[in-house]
Amino acid sequence: MLLALTDKRTGLANGFLLLALVAASLSSMSLGTISVAPLDVLGSLLGKADPMTDFVVKELRGSRILAGLLSGAALAVAGCLMQTLARNRLATPGIIGIDNAATAFAVASVVGIGLSLAPSAMALAGAAAATSLAFGLAGANGTRGYRFIVAGIGIGAIAGAATQVMLSRVAIDAANAAYPWTVGSLNARSGHSVVILSIGLVLAAILLAIINRGLNTLQFSDAVAIALGTRLRAIRILGLGLSVLLTGLAVSVCGPVGLVALLAPELARTLCRPGKVPLLASGLAGATFMVLADLLGRTLFSPLEIPVGIITAIVGSPYLLWILLKPSNRSLT
Asked: What is its main location (predicted)?
């Protein structure tokens, strides 16, 4: 009976988060400098609206909502994975420098420094380089313990400084083109990068479904997990690789949007059944956070737009301080 109740709780949590995501998306399509009635939004989605409404709902707002939804889900799942592997609530891609490194490589591509690869490929390369370097500096601890986090913070600081140096040494037009990658923005995102991110999310979902049981055993000691049949090394390498993949692809779409990877998994763990890694709930929560943050950025001081990365930083920073000042003993999984 207890198992049934706890499984029902997870299902209800996922259902609630899905409804919240739908409501946030419909609100974002409806609200803005040009308001569109909710019924007209639904009509546009069903192909029964006038051309102007279709343009506002689908072209202007729908594309950025899709980009926000996918990138928010990717960042949140990457954060949940990283926290699970490190067994530390602070071990998220943004805090350990993966976001900044991916951004630095993407900016290098935009401003024409180094290899002239697509921003998505460069962002992936930056994320992988930062993770490998942090992993190497952590030594025998791997992703475990604070040494990994401290190494990542240092790498992120260096990558952030490199980004600023690059922007200061190029023409103003090139710097303006790269600027959205430095603050996190969903404005005029590349459709090509969004397609690549969606493919990456589907691939990650398939692989995570395969290793889900192994991830759940990481809440126990290594000896217990091995006794339960978990191939720890394979699970950790694959989990870390998926976290890097999702982070790099998300940054190539929206830039370094901070703290989504921290807030979404925390909310998911609060709502879902204890003892499990809430990957689906984290993805839904991250997508909802991103869409709501973008909505606030567009409407709060309209027609002036605030980048989504600034909104998430303002909202998430007090919670990060709360974690640092009042650590919780609750299990991550």
From this structure: membrane
Within 10 angstroms of residue 143's Cβ, the number of other Cβ atoms is: 24
| 151, part of any domain | no
Mean pLDDT by 10 residues, the chain (333 residues): 55 91 91 83 80 81 90 93 84 82 82 61 82 74 67 86 84 74 76 88 92 81 72 84 89 84 89 83 94 90 83 83 64 50
| Pair of tokens at residue 117 | 């690869």
111-134 per-residue burial string, b: 16 or more CB within 10 A, e: under 16? bebeeeebbbbbbbbbbbbbbebb
135 within some domain? no
Residue numbers of the domain that contains 273 = 2-87+186-325
The H or E element spanning position 137 is helix 119-138
Q: From its phi and psi, is residue 91 left (phi > 0), alpha (psi between -120 and 50) or beta?
A: beta
| pTM given for the model | 0.87
67 and 194 Cβ atoms separated by less than 8 Å: yes
